[in-house]
Amino acid sequence: MKALMKHLLIQFRMDIRERGTLMTYYLIPLVFYLFIGAVFTSVNPLVKNTLAASMAVFAATMGAVLGTPVPVVKMRESGVLRAYRVSGIPGWAVPFIHGISAFLHLLIVSSIILITAPVFFCAGRPQDYTAFFLTLVMLLFSTIAIGMLIGAAARSQSMAVMLSQMVFLPTVVLSGIMFPASMLPEPLRMLGRLLVGTYAMEAFSGLAYGLATDFSAPWSILVGACIGILAAGLAMLRFRRMGKSP
Amino acid sequence: MPDSIRPSEAMELICAWHRIPPRRDLLNMFGLDPQSRKQYREMSTGQKRRLHLALALACDPAVVILDEPTAGLDVQGRAQLHEAIRRLRHSGVTILMATHDMAEAETLCDRVAILVRGRIATIGTPAQITSAGLGETRIILRTQKNCLLPGRDIGGARFVRQEEDYGTWLCRDAAASVVALLQEVQRAGDTVEDLRVERPSLEERFLELVERDAS
After folding, report:
1. How far is Cα A203 from Cα A197, in angstroms, rounded to an integer?
2. Distances in whole angstroms, Cα of residue A44 to Cα of each of A49, A211, A213
């Protein structure tokens, strides 16, 4: 446990030193949040109601799906994973610590958004903070699991970026963070149901803000978590297989 | 190592997983500052190699395997790593090192095995290996009046080549051959300006073994 905590502390500090990670975890989500908060809320005042939630979904998806896979692929390509293994660090620990560190960073960003949105942009506050954080935990877990799966499956960094974009861009457009998913044509709405972001938005709206939702908010948390568990399981299998190869 | 890790953090990480206190003494031993805020990406190749070596020693292994440890290093980095390996050797750690650099093997190793086509062609101390086989000692000599040039065989010394004013002889008994050559110079009323006696190098022995294998 002590080793795990030490590793986590070092990984957390290393993430802060990495310019690319800082950009995807903090800078771009916060700049985008400020832009949406300043401009989009005057175009569509309804956005204010769930601004913190939608920007948390954006930040989590950006950080986890775009931010985590490339460093994982880089670690594999440069032999860092192998070096860790031969140094006596268990194979599972590296992606696990990487995921936990990403979780903490994205939790910080989401909390900044949650605290500042009502102050800066008169955004709606969640009625139920417990539900907000429960949904946020599900969102972070599932998106990081997807990020790890991409990192474990992609053969190169460019492929990882491509796969990440295939999840990130549809999430921005189809999950309801920019405009309500109910405004989308039926085929796109169905496509949106493959995304964790959609279920997170439904759960935020229904459970944390007490708004009407397209489908059951508690079930949204469950479905979102199931997607995360599936992705985490597949990523673990892939990492385990990597651990056996020389 | 990850690009953004610091040497002290790398040491803390490895030691934490081995449940031992961080071995900052090893960083000092290999000339790495434990307080350094330098990240791995900012370190020179030589510093990285020394860090790897320090990390490998963190849990006091009985045997360390080094594969081409000085490949790609500059002269200074190479000298520093050689010094680190020497210190390690004196501390009692067994080092198994693979290298293409025969001079490195000759200066650092207690025992050397020469591999030809994946098989051990010879094994022993550098002195044993170089004195085996043809094992001829080279005598390089220059005199004031070039009395021995153009060269000829003298005593047990076989003349092999002339380069400018220098003549080169090969012999088995270096002491007797040097005496014979000096007597010849004396007889001719000449004076020795430069005399070098070089025992066969590991590299020459290696080439000899490869040639023998090919033939």
Report:
1. 10
2. 10, 17, 19
Nearest CA in chain A to B8: A10
The interface predicted TM-score (ipTM) is: 0.74
Cα–Cα distance, B58 to B136 (Å, whole number): 44
Q: How far, in Å, CA of A47 to CA of A34, rounded?
A: 13
DSSP state of B153: -
Cβ-in-10-Å burial (0-12, 13-18, 19+) of B187 comes to exposed
Q: What is the bridge-based pairing of β-strands B137-143 and B192-198?
A: antiparallel
**Chain B contact for A89, CB < 8 A?**
yes
Residue A224 contacts residue A215 (beta carbons within 8 Å): no
List per-residue pLDDT tens for chain A, 246 residues long: 888 888 899 989 998 888 888 899 999 999 988 888 888 777 777 777 888 888 899 899 999 999 889 888 988 888 888 888 888 888 788 888 999 999 999 999 999 999 998 888 888 888 889 999 999 999 999 999 999 999 988 888 899 999 999 888 888 888 777 777 777 788 888 888 888 888 898 888 888 888 877 778 788 899 999 999 999 999 988 888 876 654
CB pair distance less than 8 Å for B2 and A3? no
Check CB contact under 8 Å for A7 and B55.
Answer: no
Other C-beta atoms lying within 10 Å of the C-beta of residue A123: 22
Per the DSSP assignment, residues forming a β-bridge with B123 are: B113
What are the Cα distances from residue B171, in Å, to A1, B92, B162, B176, B177?
67, 38, 16, 9, 7
To which H or E segment does residue A116 belong? helix A93-121
Name the residue of chain A whose CA is nearest to B6's CA. A14
- Give the length of chain B: 215
Neighbours of A146 (CB within 10 A): 29
For residue B198, CA distances in Å to A167, A218, B138, B194 come to 69, 86, 5, 13
**Could you tell me if B16 and A10 are in contact, meaning their C-beta atoms sit under 8 angstroms apart?**
no
Contact indicator for A139, A56 with CB cutoff of 8 Å: yes
Q: Please tell me whether residue B158 adopts helix, strand or coil conformation.
A: strand
C-alpha B113 chain-centroid distance: 13
Nearest to B1 among A2, A13, A83 (CB): A83
Q: Supply A88's token pair.
A: 């006596």
